[in-house]
Structure formats: C-alpha cells, structure tokens
Structure prediction request, 589 residues.
Amino acid sequence: MMAPKVAGFLAEGRRRKVIWFGAFWLILYIALILAVPQISTVNPLGAQGGARLSTLELHIIDGEVGVPIPARIQIVSADGETHIAEDALWFGGDCRDLTVHGEHLEDALEKQSLEVKNPLAVRSVRSETTQFYSNGHSVIRLPAGRARISVFKGPEYLLAEHSIVIPESETREYTVELSRLANMPEEGWYSSDGHLHIARPTDGINPHVSKIMQAEGVHVANLLLWGKADTVGLTPQYAHGPPSWYREGDYILAAGLENPRTHFLGHTITLGANEPLHNPETYLIYRLLWEEAVEEGALNGYAHLGTLANAGRHSGLSLVLPYGLMHFLEVLQANRLDYSAWYDVLNLGFRVTPTAGTDFPCIPSIPGHERFYTKVDGPYDYEGWLEAVRLGKTFVTTGPLLDFTVSSKDVGSEVSLREASEVLVEARVRYDPAKDDILGLELVQNGSVVRSFPQIDDTGEMFVSFHHPIEQTSWLALRGYGNQLVQFLRGNRIHGTTVHSAPIYVTVENTPPLASQPTGRSAARTWLAQLENLEIRLNDTNMPYLLETVDLWHKRSRDGFSKELLLRNRMALLDEIAHARTFYMEFLK
Prediction:
C-alpha cells in the first residue's frame, strides 16, 4: 500500500500535468486563431479562399422616366455574405474623429468609406448589415449562385427586393426599376435632414455628398459645423451663408451651425447664418448668439429634444424662450421622440416649427432616417425653404408621408372663426408596408389626443375626414404611430414608425388666447420649475458640488464646458433666470 504522502505527491503531480497540458493546448489554439486570416462578413471584391468569382453589373433606374438614379443597395450572396460594389460612392461623416480635414478633396475622402454600416432594419430586411451607395450603375464581384438584392431610395420610393441567379465565372447584367410611392416635390414638399455632420473642407466634395443625399431622397441637407465653448470649427464647412449652398436639381446642400452646445443647457442649431457665430466669453448666455443670428435672418432651434443625449435641454429652453428668438425644435431623432416640451411651447402661444434630424454619424444611423418635409409655396431654393420652415409648414417622419388640413388650410396656417363652431379635418397618410407600418392616427388639440382612428388594413394608405368642434382658440395637429421595432442604439429595440404634423392654428374671436387657458398656465408652471431647478444648482451652497461635477464632465466631454466658464457666466445666468421668471409669472396672474 502506498504511503499517504507519496500518493498525495503523485496525485498533485497528475493535477499539475493536466493543468499544463490544458494550458498548452489553449495557448496553441489562440495562436492558431490569431495566425489564420479572418473572413470578413463584407467582401467588396467577392468571395475569399480563391473561389472563382462572377460579376454583376447592376443598373438602378427610375421606373417612371427610365433614367439612372442614385440609391442605397444591399446584396447578400448564397453564402450569407454581403457585398459592396467596386465603384461604390464614398460615404462618411465626422463626429468621433475630430481631426480637422485638409483643404483638398483627397483629404476629405480619406475620412470616408465605400461601406455603409446600417444599424437599422425594415420589416423585410435584417438589421445591422453592410450596404453601399450607387450612382445608378454598379459593378459587384460575388460568388455564383442565388443572390438577394435590396434597393432603397428614401420614403418616396418603394423598397425593391429581387432574388437572382449569378452564373459561374460570367458577367450578368441586371436592371432594377424603382417605383414611386409619391412624388412630394411635385406636390410642393421637400424633405430635409436638419442635423448632419459631414465635413466639406472644399467645394470639390459637394458632388460626392449630393449623390448620397439623392440616394436617400434628402432634398435639403443641413451640414452642421459644430462648436465647443472654447472653439468652433469641428466638421468644417468651406463657407457659410449663400456661398455654402450647392444645388443639383432639387437637391440642396447648405452649411449650418450646432453652437452653442453644452450638457448643462443643451445643444442648439442655427440655420442660414452667414458665419459661424461664437463668443467664448459669454458662451452660456445662448440668447446673445441667437440675437446675432436673428439679425442675419437665420433660424434658431434646439436639438436632440427626443433623445437622452441632451440632458440640459429643458433648462436652456426655459431661459431663451421668453425672448421670442426660437423658430424650431428638433422633436424626432434616433427613433425617439419627445413632444411634451414642444407642446408646452405651443400652449404658451409661441408658434415653433417641428423638425427632425439624424445627428449622423454621432448617432449610428443613415442620413434621412428621421427627416422632416417642408411645403414651399414660392420658388424652391434655400432661402424659400428657410422661410417655409419659419412659417411652420412641416411634418416630421421616419417614413410615412402625411397630408393634413383643417377647413382646407394646410399646416402652419391659421383658421379664423367668429364663434365656436365645427371645422373640417382631413388627413391622408401613405407608406410602404414593406418598410413601415401605421397602426393609427390621432388628432392632437392643445397637447391632448381628442380623436383616434385605427388602421384597419395594410394597404399602405389611410384616410380620415370628419367635423371637429372648436370651442375656443386652439392648435390642432395630426400624428401617426406604428409598432415596427428596429434594432438601434447598441441593440436596443425601439419603435421605428412615427409621423407628426406641424400645427394648424384656429383662432376663435372673443375667447382666451392659448397662454391664458389652463394648458398655458400649466406650461408656465413647468418652465418655472425648470428655472428653480437651475437656480438651485447655481446657488452658493450647491456651487462646490456643481463645479466638481462640471470638472468631471469636462474631462470626458467634447463640449469644452469648464469650471472657469461657469464661474465667468454665473451671475449673467442668474440674471437670465430672474428675467425668465418674471416672464412666466405673468401667465399665472
């Protein structure tokens, strides 16, 4: 019989041998994995592994007029890989990499890619795929066998999906004719992404960017230079004002400005300014820059109202609203929406336009996924478009197209009544069932849903027409919603179909104005609460804690907001709070 110590020693030796043996094979396995070239899920030139490739020459044409048109394309071969074209359009934006581009076209294109990393899904196309942009003709190398082609061109064209067979080691030509759902420009409506970060250090990049916007059906692309408290010039634009406007057909590129912007008071957007407005000394007093913008005829608004990325937006809104310098609110972004603050603004009597934008590429998306349409009644150019936004002639959408009238008056208009009576409400929504859905429409009056209409089929169209009683001065708007879920924002699945019109205003003689009604007084109390919150954060007792949190934020933030800036602007902020409080208190008398 073996002695206990010897047996224990041998058992321990066996354990060590097993451990070393397992470690050896684990290390060998990892080394082999690292040594073997990885197969990409995206193959711009075709299959790897030495397989003989075929060539697909793909043509995308407008089915109505028979001419080539830009579009976004996804091609999946029989092996499940996605493929991009050899002649795909360059594509990209500037957010995470804050390096200022050089002044040459080659420098700008260095920051771009042939691949479109699309984090979104539609009802019939899987999410998080790699796609590419085409100018209407593309050459793709891929393995033989069956391939699936999906072609997208914004909400006005139907999704085209084709399954074709690619012959082995041959070239196949294939044409996809896109069919229209609607031609909105013919009806006077032009779509816009109000929030894009795509650098244009030189005007030579304009044709490249314009083709991408044409592929997405974005007629007005607002390319925002953005600033920090200490500088302005990120995502550079070669010019501002009219020299920045570039047009191909009905498609316009224009420089805009996301500045001032802090986590403390929110992010703002100015459209139509002739220069990048900036004042580092009084950066937290947003009103001062907005006054300069208004003097130039530009439009001011708040960004990110529907997202969690702009934590201080309501505090900043409460300060600038009393001055009447705000023209629009970005109520839809990142498949998220927040109408509450906008409704409060309307209920105080301010006629502020709803807009939408993607914040591409700072929020993972594609240009135009959230957009707004603007009705331009006169000549269509950027100045006419700005004026139409100023007048409130918009609707925001993730796809569905909306028509909405009250007593035959369009959005942004006013209906005058001598006494309480009924108005005729008419609406139509159109959408592509392959991409979107609408479960119902809702009539909103002064912020409350007063009528609701369910969708009863999936034809892609819905009409409502009814008479609605109006007892006193009100605003009316129409909104639609769907339950399609999309993959977005690090895997979160959130609702992906929404549409909301700008208001139509109904004035009834001898009735209280909006601000004097209960909804107006409630909105005033909401803004007073925001002011109180801000003032408490700025008082002597809380300042040490606030300065500490600002310092921590400054170390990880890109907005340049520092302790020194807060101390420099603190007394002016307290004066702004006092002025705003006096303004809102008037509504409660």
User: Anything to note?
Assistant: The chain has three domains: 43-178, 183-397+517-589, 398-515.
